[in-house]
Amino acid sequence: MDIVISCRSGCAACCIAPSITSPIPGMPQGKxxxxxxxxxxxxxxxxxxxxxxxxxxxGTLKPGADMCGANRAEAMALLSALERATAPxxxxxS
Length: 94
Description:
This protein is mainly α. Helices cover 26% and strands 0% of the residues. It has helices spanning 56-60, 65-68, 72-86. 16% of the residues are buried. The mean pLDDT is 90.
């Protein structure tokens, strides 16, 4: 059984660490990993939460210990590691 936790106020790791390949209002090409989403407000809350313009990817993220850790630093580390582990492999033909 997964333990569900509440979203940590002021964290926004899930809006910074992962890449998002679908368009976001203000970021038509999506966003690279490690770049804050332009839809984060000053309190690190999503301006699109609950709106149809919010990328589907964002709706799939559910706060949990395996994603959020015990604090923001752990959340960033966990999500950054997941991003690296799931990134497409690029081959060099040189």
